Every structure is written in C-alpha cells, then in structure tokens.
Amino acid sequence: MESLGRQDIVLVAVDLGIDGAHYMEQGTLDVAIIQNPYLMGYYSVETAMQHLAGKNVDRNIFTETRIIDKGNMFSEENQQLIFPFGL
User: Fold this and answer.
1) Global confidence as pTM
2) Most buried of 4, 18, 78, 80 (most Cβ within 10 A)?
3) CATH dotted code for 2-82
C-alpha cells in the first residue's frame, strides 16, 4: 500500500473482474481467489432438475477455486475464468 507507506500489507480479493485484473497488473492487488462461474451455473441447474425429479441431491457441491496472482493471471485457462464472456 504505497499511499500508506507500507509494504507489509497484502491485498486479497474474492473473484476478479476487469478492474481487479487491472489492479493486479499494476501491483496494487496481490492475489485473488476466483470461482468458476460456468460450473456454478451448470451445477445449479443440474441440481435443481434432479431435485424437481424427486432425486436426492447433495446439500453442498464443490466447484473448483483458483488462486490467481500476477504470475499466473495471463494463462489462457485463468483468462477464461477472469473474463468468461471476453473483453
């Protein structure tokens, strides 16, 4: 946090969009924990359909999360998660 004259503060975000990616590229944001919005939607619909069909469904469904930092934010796979609908 340069404006505070501190180097011992780590800034972490949950999810990451265009603004967050910009802050990470500048070095303001250190790390982000991101989810997979596609899988979240997919499992939501699939679980709702199973429930409506009278099937037992899990109360908790794990979807992958990733730790994104400046070193890996530009990988193709991470770019698809950060910008799921393109720029």
Assistant:
1) 0.71
2) 78
3) 3.40.50.2300
Instruction: Summarize pLDDT for 3-41 with one digit per residue, the tens.
Output: 777 778 889 999 888 899 999 999 889 999 998 888 889
The whole-number pLDDT of residue 2 equals 63
* Strand boundaries in 16-78, DSSP class E: 31-35, 65-69
Q: What is the pLDDT of residues 58-86, one digit of tens each?
A: 999 988 899 999 999 999 989 888 887 76
pLDDT score at 64: 87
List the beta bridge partners of residue 65: 35
DSSP string, the chain: -GGGT-SS---EEES--HHHHHHHHHTS--EEEEE-HHHHHHHHHHHHHHHHTT----S-----EEEEETTTTTSHHHHHHHSTT--
Q: Where are the domains of the chain?
A: 2-82
